[in-house]
Amino acid sequence: MIELEGVPELIDPVMVAAFEGWNDAGDAASTAVGHLNREWKGEVFAALDAEDYYDFQVNRPTVWMEGGSRKITWPTTRLSVVRVGGDKPRDLVLVRGIEPSMRWRSFCNEILGFAHELGVEMVVILGALLGDTPHTRPVPVSGVTSDPDLARTMDLEETRYEGPTGIVGILQEACTHAGVPAVSLWAAVPHYVSQPPNPKATLALLNRLEDLLGLRIPLGELPEDARAWQLGVDQLAAEDSEVAEYVQTLEEARDTAELPEASGEAIAREFERYLRRRDVGGPGQAPGGHATESGDMSPYLRDTAGERTRPPRPQRPEKGRPGGARPDAGSAKEGDAPEDPSTGPDDDTPPTG
Q1: Tens of pLDDT along 43-80?
Q2: CB–CB of 124/14 below 8 Å?
Q3: Once rounded to an integer, what is the mean pLDDT over residues 274-288?
Q4: Nearest C-alpha neighbor of 304 from the set 312, 293, 315, 296
Q5: Residues 201 and 139 sit within 8 Å (Cβ to Cβ)
Q6: Range list of H helices, the chain
Q7: Cα–Cα nearest to 310, from 207, 219, 217, 233
Q8: How does pLDDT run across 286-331, given as a tens digit for each residue?
Q9: Whose CA is closest to 185, among 149, 213, 164, 216?
Q10: Is 192 helix (H, G, I), strand (E, B) or coil?
Q11: CA-derived radius of gyration, the chain
């Protein structure tokens, strides 16, 4: 462990973690924690020793120049702290890194050691997986926990997943066994446009985190990025009739499944988010920076040659693959989220065990 600087006494701290790799489809989860760190100007206070947990042939260090000298950045996991202001200030301990290559139990114990020393009240782990979900609909985000009491009090799903898991699932179980309340939030990324970045999935995770913790998260340009991403995928899908037809099939399946769920709970969540954001935003924006129908949509069409690139071309659906079928769990590659059999038509629980 490399300690960088001391940390003052924290106020009602919650740890929020995400890891690049198998549980981070479209880099949605790690980008969400990076957004929190950037918007709230997080200060790194510790990093785990890369030698203990990473295979440098899998996650290679990078070399760069500073003032004529060569520097090396090693792949690792860093911890930072941010203070969230408002009427009731609180602190977040942000953990961002790469899924370790080895010694997962020691890795989790070290993270839990920090949580214990800092008085962390709850751990929230962000993840993203590939799913049969259309890019044109709101990103599904599931909140799951292994703690039955926590599931009841925070309106979460109790995980029933069985099968291969990543560091998200291992860390959540380590927290449970250590008596630390732990929740994981999972965003479903369309499998046919899985390449990073996916700002729409990142935005969905941050909105769900707001609801879970009762915070107002500054979103910056993320809503604009999400709209630009969706418009870009719309344009690319329209160029391929097979992809367009497949997206339409997913839309119909999604709309049919959600028809009974025009629930008061969903409306209440949106209203609570509105109340948290009612004092921010400007003309043409809903609170929090979301563009409205009366506002100018042109920011979403900014020159992609400058700040934004077009999304990668959507992958064609596999021949003979029905809309609800999924590839084997073992087909996930480095950087992909797990292809989780539990997210089939009968069970929407993400892989946390």
Answers
A1: 899 999 999 999 999 999 999 999 999 999 999 999 99
A2: yes
A3: 46
A4: 312
A5: yes
A6: 28-39, 50-53, 104-118, 148-153, 167-177, 199-213, 222-238, 241-258, 264-277
A7: 233
A8: 333 333 232 333 333 333 344 444 566 677 666 544 333 333 333 3
A9: 213
A10: helix
A11: 20
Nearest to 123 by CA among 162, 174, 163, 165: 174
**What are the tokens at 232?**
């870009």
**Distance of alpha carbon 147 from alpha carbon 123, whole angstroms:** 12
Does residue 29 or residue 307 have the better pLDDT? 29
Whether 127 contacts 24, CB under 8 Å: yes
| Six token digits for residue 353 | 């065990």
| DSSP for 206-275, written as a single string | HHHHHHHHT-----TTHHHHHHHHHHHHHHHHHT-HHHHHHHHHHHHHHHHHHGGG--HHHHHHHHHHHH
Amino acid at 232: G
* Helix (H) and strand (E) counts in the chain: 9, 13
CA distance 340 to 353: 11
Q: What is the model's pTM?
A: 0.75
Tokens 């782990």 — which residue? 125
